[in-house]
Amino acid sequence: MAWSPVPSAGDYWKLLNMHTMKTTPYLDRREFLRLSACLIGGLTLYPQSGWAASQSDVPALRLERLSTGANVCRWFRFPRRDSAEHFNNYIPESEATLMAELGLKHVRLCIQPRVLMGRTDGSVIVERAQQVEAALRRFHRAGLAVVVDIHNEDRNDELNPEWQNAFLKFWSTLASRLSAFDPDLTVLEIINEPVFRGRESEWDALNARLAAAIRQSAPQHTIMTTGPNWGGIDGLKRLTVLPDKNVVYSFHCYDPFPFTHQGATWSSEEVKPLRGVPYPSSPEAVAPLLAGLEAHPGSRRMIERYGNEHWNKAKLAARFKEGIEWGARHGVPLYCGEFGVFPPHANPEHRANWFRDFGQVLAEHRIGWSVWGWDEGFGLSRRYVDGQPVVDQVVARALGLKAA
After folding, report:
1. Which end of the chain is more exposed for a tag (fewer CB within 10 A), N or C?
2. Domain-by-domain residue ranges, the chain?
3. Is the dihedral of CA 173, 174, 177, 180 positive or negative?
């Protein structure tokens, strides 16, 4: 690969990968800065805004490690078994190594608050914390960074002042424990997908309090936060940026919804009857579906609208641009913490099209990502075959990972 004054999209990560493959899987900060010196003009949030002018203090090595990842959904979020065996061995050393071999550089470890936190007093459940810490060490040994995601999904809790105060105490204690872990390998994500609909300013206030508590206990670690309204791009645009400069700003994206959630029984009534929704979309592409939706007028209207919107790579790029411009305006790094497609009723070819376009747009704007999920549907969907973990090859290949 030829060196150029301004690398093209994707060259930065390729050059780093070439270097690490020839030498060592890790770079110390001095070596990373040396390697990056001739590239810094091209490391951008979007083509008009370089990191040289950024207001962020997040080390470049940490951002590089956030470039490719997967959510670990079932270890500490909704454990299928409440047992020591589950919490100690859900992902063994060999599986963590496989994750790195596939091309992942980090995991987003989803932790349901009630699994780790005393609900009323905000205490950290010591035995469970020790198991979380053992999981971090296991991933780190495999060369994987970890985003510690406190994955709240209780909307009543997040609005309850008593719970908020307990959560503040919880994060202060947890961050103190996690401060012992390498800050280049451990990112602290405040909370998953806050909603605060109609009360968005309350999230700004709580977010600032939580970030301050974490920073006091973990002065060197990068914090990750997100906007209200389910942590999407629209919520990000409403978020007040924190005064702390060692922060990554996350958003989740499952657009376009009629494609990514087709047939999802827990979602809206309109998507439940959908089958075989194509991507890219056009009126011609969706026309064969309309006759079968006569009994579901809401679903039919949704699909007609989806076809008329012409969802493709350019449309995804336009959607991301809203968040990218917000990040560039504030000089902060962005990260896509969740994305994926519900697979049972989606054509594999169309899933591949979507994941390829989605991943390419993120790469072109140097936005790191974590697919949902490693061990749950929508993404890599790891399962065991003859005792060996395998992933969805359609998704892995479309995202530029190795298939297994």
Report:
1. N
2. 1-41, 53-255+316-398, 258-308
3. negative
Positive/negative CA dihedral, 81, 131, 107, 103: negative
Residue 45 neighbours by CB under 8 Å, 6+ apart? 51, 54, 324, 327, 328, 333, 334, 365, 366, 367
Q: In this structure, what token pair is assigned to residue 139?
A: 């991933």
- Tell me the pLDDT of the chain (404 aa) as tens digits: 222 233 333 333 343 343 333 333 444 443 433 334 333 333 333 333 333 336 899 999 999 999 999 999 999 999 888 899 999 999 999 999 999 999 999 999 999 999 999 989 999 999 999 999 999 999 999 999 999 999 999 999 999 999 999 999 999 999 999 999 999 999 999 999 999 999 999 999 999 999 999 999 999 999 999 999 999 999 999 999 999 999 999 999 999 999 999 999 999 999 999 999 999 999 999 999 999 999 999 999 999 999 999 999 999 999 999 999 999 999 999 999 999 999 999 999 999 999 999 999 999 999 999 999 999 999 999 999 999 999 999 999 999 999 76
Q: Distance between CA 329 and CA 133 in Å, rounded?
A: 36
What is 329-386 written as a DSSP string?
A: HHT--EEEEE-----TTS-HHHHHHHHHHHHHHHHHTT-EEEES-SSSTTTT--EEET
CA atoms of 346 and 357, how far apart (whole Å): 16
Cα–Cα dist 28/9, whole Å:
24
Least Cα distance to 329 among 41, 56, 10, 60 occurs for 56
3-class DSSP assignment, residue 45: strand
CATH architecture, domain 53-255+316-398: Alpha-Beta Barrel (3.20)
Strand partners, 186: 146
pTM score, whole prediction = 0.87
Burial of 148 (0-12, 13-18, 19+ CB in 10 A): buried
Q: What is the Cα–Cα distance from 202 to 197, expressed in whole angstroms?
A: 10
